Amino acid sequence: MENCLPNLDSLQFVLHVLGGKWKLHILSILYFGKKRFKELEREIGTISPKMLIKELKDLEAAGIVYRQTFNTVPITVEYSLTEDGLTLKPVLDHVNEWAVHLKQKVNNRNKRATR
């Protein structure tokens, strides 16, 4: 049981940094390159500007997202992944594979249950 404690601490840290409804969605969009705030807002669709700002600030504070401002009128802000953010790609790819597999199993169980 003692060996599990460091793993639980790490998992709690990951959930703290990446938890919530929007962060993984934001990261998955930024893997395709830099995005302006409005582009992120449009691609996500159902997030409020206030929530998007909060989530981006959280990801920036964690060192996963980089915010760059340009001195234009109006000011242009672009978001991209940092080097640390890019290291999440293989992890998220595995989580996606796991999710696809599990979703398929759940759907198959539900189909059998409704017959």
Automatic annotation (TrEMBL):
Metal-binding listed as a keyword: no
Keyword Zinc in annotation: no
PANTHER family hit by this protein: TRANSCRIPTIONAL REGULATOR, TRANSCRIPTIONAL REGULATOR, MARR FAMILY
Signal peptide residue numbers: none
Membrane-spanning ranges: 13-32
Organism annotation: Chitinophaga filiformis (Myxococcus filiformis)
Protein name: Helix-turn-helix transcriptional regulator
Keywords tagged on the record: DNA-binding, Membrane, Transcription, Transcription regulation, Transmembrane, Transmembrane helix
Domain HTH hxlR-type: 4-107
SUPFAM superfamilies the record matches: Winged helix' DNA-binding domain
